[in-house]
Amino acid sequence: RNAKIKKNTGIQRRGIMKDEYLKKQARWLSEGQIDRRQFIKAAIAAGLAVPSALTLATDVLAATPKKGGKFRMGSSYGSTTDALDAGTSENGMSQNIIYARGNHLTEVNNDGVLIPELSTGYEPSNGAKTWMFDLRQGVEFHNGKTMTADDVIATFNYHRDENSKSAAKGLLSAIKEIKKDGDNRIIFELDGGNADFPYIVSDYHIMIMPSVDGKIDDANSPVGTGGYIVESYEPGVRILMKRNPNYFKEGRAHFDEVEMITLSDTTARQNAIMNGDVDFIDNVDPKTVALLGRVPILDILKTTGTQHFTFPMRVNAAPFDNYDLRMALKYAIKRQELVDKILLGNGEAGNDVPVNASMPYFNTELPVHEFDAEKAAEHYKKSGHSGAIQLSVSDAAFPGAVDAAQLIAASAKEAGIEIELVREPSDGYWSNVWNKKPWCACYWGGRPTQDWMYSAAYTSDTEWNDTAWKDGESADKFNSLVLAARSETDEAMRKEQYWEAQRLLQDDGGAIVSMWASFIHAHNKTLAHDENVAANWLSDGAKVSERWWFA
After folding, report:
1. Helix axis angle, 373-383 to 323-330, nearest 10°
2. β-pairing verdict for 513-517 and 347-349
3. Bridge partners for 189 per DSSP
């Protein structure tokens, strides 16, 4: 028995030594100290069969980032009204451009963790009313200028200016003062405590820009600190960028060139990836996932995060200024049918709050807004409305938005409500329709915290309040609760505040959050990426150009 134990122990020890040996050889291969042939010889000598050695070598090389190549991305977003001003960015194309050419004080990494980016660290004091950020030294803008505290202050003041049209203006409304402590330290003074402030400064609109005499001279300048330098830009068509040789991030921005192309049409986007005209596409239509999955050169990538598809009703415009009409429409939608037929099961039904179970302080006791023809008809009768209700829609909002609107019109008809669909042009949808027309289709990538989500789209001070729910007793109470929860340190009290905020928003607000949708992408198998892929936005957190490489 002792001999058997001794023998088994020896086998285990040899197995551990073999694993360590192979790991060392794999590290040398990934670092370029040995070539593929040498690695395979070493693996065979360690006892691996030839096929296994070949497979292991391929896997090691695929997981090793390499420089070079031209990355072509087909985006479902983009408009001729787009601009390089990060503050006015309103779609996924411009967001990807921002992350390719610029950086922020912090970022959410591909593991979903908030980390410093242009800062090296941050620290609160005074009950989270004061936040100190140490800046990364030696970072250069594309024009050769060294980034300093003056650039950071000027950037934030640009978004905070009283005449600013930046979508980040509301996010930053709590800042009372920004000052510097030397060239490489920034101090923010807030009007109240905010434990989530480091998340706020990672918002993609707040890309740090170069200043001139303490001000941002041109917010539409292509100059940033990012991994790629803009060479040419046609809004709503394409952008071409080249790698920044002085990028401060080690092991990022691997491609020689990056080309992002607007392909709003679902079929055009699908054909482009199948024909090899692009290497990566976002927003794959769930109906075509099976088809693309059968293409030998392609892989399908699905990530699940906080993306949700909405139909915002502007409460300052008739007939949506009527509570009962809004409630009638909320009960007139077959949400699971939308998930089944539009997302083909790649998501879950929404409940008219931009918060789901993946986020802190999710209210599990909210009433469920699901199709109820009787309740819908009852509220509709109380509203006193008659005639058709117009719903503006385009697939520019999200893949299948037109089909979703048709399903909503069909279910509403069962409750005696007539909905007239207005087909809007894809180009200019985000400038001419969304946040302007009384009722339309929309998508939100979501935010990791409730405060950030509300500050981006629901509080009274944000430019992106696409429901215009800003006035009235419920809206006032909601805004007060969001403000109070922001600085609340007692977990039980903060939960109570956020639960009540969700209840008010679901009941009185103008948002129809119809469904939560998985991100679906297709890419050429020659592309490789880290083991984890971010789900806070489409396209690996909108940083596919920085994080991926050609294997």
Report:
1. 160
2. antiparallel
3. 130, 177
